[in-house]
Amino acid sequence: MLQEMDGYKNSASLAVLASGNGSNLKALIKSIKSGDVANANISLVISNKKESKALTIAKDAEIPAVLLERNLFNSDEEYDFSLLNKLKEFNIDVVLLAGYLRIITAPFLKAYENRILNIHPSLLPDFGGKGMYGMKVHQAVINSKAEKSGCTVHLVTEEIDGGEVLAQACVSITPDDTAEILAAKVLKEEHKLYPRAVNNFISNLMLNNR
Ligand code: GRF
Question: What is the pTM of this model?
């Protein structure tokens, strides 16, 4: 993957796919700038939602930002085909999902096998799977009376939220916590965990490519 015609790339090109607020994108940009994430560069941001703040965050950071709306395509496969072309155009090595509210089709998974990461706002395998996203996750955790929750960075496979876990961080839940309070606690941890997990992932990739 990271191999080039004339040798090896010493920096991985990342694409971030986001549909919402883009706070994880912001944390990743900051961590690359500070050097906490080494040997990596965000070369492309793609969103399926024109109102996604990720597009503005990318533009402000002078990162190419592409809006790809689903309604312009006849099928999910056609959508992902166009997305894959963009990833190829920008020589993307690793794809980071950050609040990307779309299912990845099989050809996309195949093209980037073991190269797509996601962050999920619970301690997987708990509170993951179909329909478990956003506040639904946190509400389900609160309803379950669990004493802790957290976030998980994992590889993306055909099983929703089912790929190999790369890193997790915990938060404790107090009896007064609402889903909103829990979401804020977890998001704060996400902003530390995702850059850390990406940094580890990239350094392993570099070692394996050497
Ligand atoms: C995060 O909670 C993440 O775990 C989930 O979607 C949310 C995205 O937040 N997959 P943001 O758009 O990065 O602020």
Answer: 0.95
